[in-house]
Amino acid sequence: MKKNDKGLYRTAITINGKRKWFSGKTRKDVMQKIALYRIEEKESITFGSVAEKWQEDNWDRLRFGSYRTYAPCLERAIQKFGKTDIDKLKPIEIQTWLRDLGRTYAFKTVANHKSIVSQVCDYAIVNLGIDMYNPCDKVKMPAGLKKGTRNALSADERTAILSTTKDENQLAFLILFTGCRLGEALALQMKDIDMKNNVVHITKSVAFHGNQPVIQTTKTENGIRDVPLLSPLKDRLKELKLPAEAYIVSGEKPMTKSALYRRWDAFCKAKGIHIDRHSIRHQYATTLYEAGIDAKTAQDLLGHAQIATTMDIYTHISNEKKLKDFMKLETFVANDF
């Protein structure tokens, strides 16, 4: 849907073989006119058709990480409910679908599927004026779903990142020593680095509108934070000799989404590793834990809105360490006792 020369949003749809144009001052105006026309024409409005409109209005505004998370969820939801009239979608159908998904996916992924269906239904109610209730309001998450966990990097993966030269992609190196989220790392400029006081100021983030990067605020208010400028990163930044306005990862301006994918894949291939940015951030959390940094300080350094998020990570790291210690004990008893 695009604006015309008169500043009006305009789009066309085909209903019952008839092509009709609609225009309005806002996207919402146009959507409501379409919804009313469909009702007058007695055309059923399917979940799939609403999902497409929701996607058109919202997709480009999603953060990069959110896009990667929700895209497959939306695709599966359309495959499952696409031909169902949205006002006839029943809670039991969604509940059964989530239970089936739980056989393959962890809790968080199943919750994302529920969220995407709920957002589409809310869009139908609020933006299209469809007289219905949101069936997801009656749906509960299935019991007994496994919790997904992220692990720290292996020794080989850490070594591969540490071997990054000044002429290679600096993204992994930057996250490893700052704990930045992806968007935060992409937004870091040399002027955000206080070499004198050894501080990195994290104040902004890159999101993607389509393929194009857009600078915006951090994910949460807690995302605006200072983290220590650790010596390996300080030495690297001195090597790079970038001007104050330069983006550390990409130079004159933030990179596009396609460039991000391309450069990350090339970096991993060159290093012989297959990792994601979340694992590197988890490694930073692991480093904080191993260095004896308390959970409250770690919460500030990681930019978590809730201390519970930090505690979950610290508990996971602690349990991993215990398991490794148990294995060491077993190996000792088996071989040397």
Overview of the molecule:
With 337 residues, the chain is mainly α. It folds into 2 domains: 44-138, Orthogonal Bundle (DNA polymerase, domain 1), CATH 1.10.150.130; 155-320, hpI Integrase, Chain A (Orthogonal Bundle). It contains 13 helices and 8 strands. The strands form 3 sheets. Strands 1-2-3 form a 3-stranded antiparallel beta sheet, with helices on one face. A 3-stranded antiparallel beta sheet has the order 4-5-8, with no helix packed on it. A hairpin with a 2-residue loop joins strand 6 (205-209) and strand 7 (212-216). The radius of gyration is 24 Å and the shape is globular. The chain starts with a strand and ends with a helix. The mean pLDDT is 87.
Which key phrases capture this entry?
single chain, 337 residues, mainly alpha, DNA polymerase, domain 1, 3-stranded antiparallel sheet
